[in-house]
Amino acid sequence: MEDQNFYHTIEKPSVAEFSDRGSKFIGMAYPVNDFVTFKLALAEVKRLHPKASHYCFAYRFGTDGSIYRVADAGEPSGTAGRPILGQIDSKGLTNVLVIVVRYFGGTLLGVPGLINAYKSTASMSLQLTPIIRKPIETIFELQFDYTVSNDVIRVLKKFNCNMVKQDMQLFCDFTIGIAKQNELLCINELEEIRGVVLKKKSDSET
């Protein structure tokens, strides 16, 4: 059974090319975990490939992989976005975007040909970037007096917490990510420090 304390994603962007009967397909895989970053990546691809005939894509977000979208971008329904998403899912990945641009070569490929082209291009792009395992985190807001900041930071380093945001003044306000596997132990140690207030952030706040 898959360890539910972790998820798999890609480490860095990659590019792959595939050709079939004159049409050229360029697949670009990105580690992306929100809609804003997705929009920026798609805009950048359109800027780099202004003469492409199609910009098809699929993404899956969320540590549980619950958010996804596919786009055929003018290709026959089901021939592009779904095959791309199928490659993301076949590798068990999330927080991943794959965009495949097509330069039309003048010859129609038909539905089977298109499915194969988009599937193959997506697969190649995902093979060219390392797959990494990341801990699933719970986001907390952490407030404390500056006088205990050394004790707080020692605990955060001990449990390898992710520092999302920090505001250090006389009264400090941090937003941190605690790996699920360390959550209870880390919370117990933080709450033992005088004056520390710890609040779990809801999904809508993160």
Walkthrough of the structure:
It is a single chain. The chain is of the alpha+beta class. It folds into 2 domains: 6-133, Ribosomal Protein S5, domain 2 (2-Layer Sandwich), CATH 3.30.230; 136-200, Alpha-Beta Plaits. Helices cover 30% and strands 36% of the residues. The protein has 5 helices and 11 strands. The chain has helices at 35-48, 81-90, 110-127, 149-158, 183-191, and strands spanning 6-10, 14-20, 23-31, 54-61, 67-71, 96-103, 131-135, 137-145, 162-167, 171-179, 197-200. The strands form 3 sheets. A 5-stranded antiparallel sheet has the order 2-3-6-4-5, sandwiched between helices. The chain has a 4-stranded antiparallel sheet with strand order 9-10-8-11, covered by helices on one side. A two-stranded antiparallel ribbon has the order 1-7. The model has no long low-confidence stretch (mean pLDDT 94).
Number of strands: 11
Q: What is CATH's topology name of the largest domain?
A: Ribosomal Protein S5, domain 2
Q: Treating each run of at least 4 consecutive H or I residues as one helix, how many helices?
A: 5
Shape descriptor = elongated
Question: What top-tier CATH class of the largest domain fits best?
Answer: Alpha Beta
Tell me what the CATH architecture of the largest domain is: 2-Layer Sandwich
Low-pLDDT stretches: none
Largest sheet: 5 strands, antiparallel
Order of helices and strands: EEEHEEHEHEEHEEHE
Which strand-content bin applies to the residues? Answer: 35-45%
Q: What's the mean pLDDT score?
A: 94
Say which CATH homologous superfamily of the largest domain is assigned: Impact, N-terminal domain
Query: Order of strands across the widest beta sheet?
Result: 2-3-6-4-5
> Structural class, judged by helices and strands?
alpha+beta
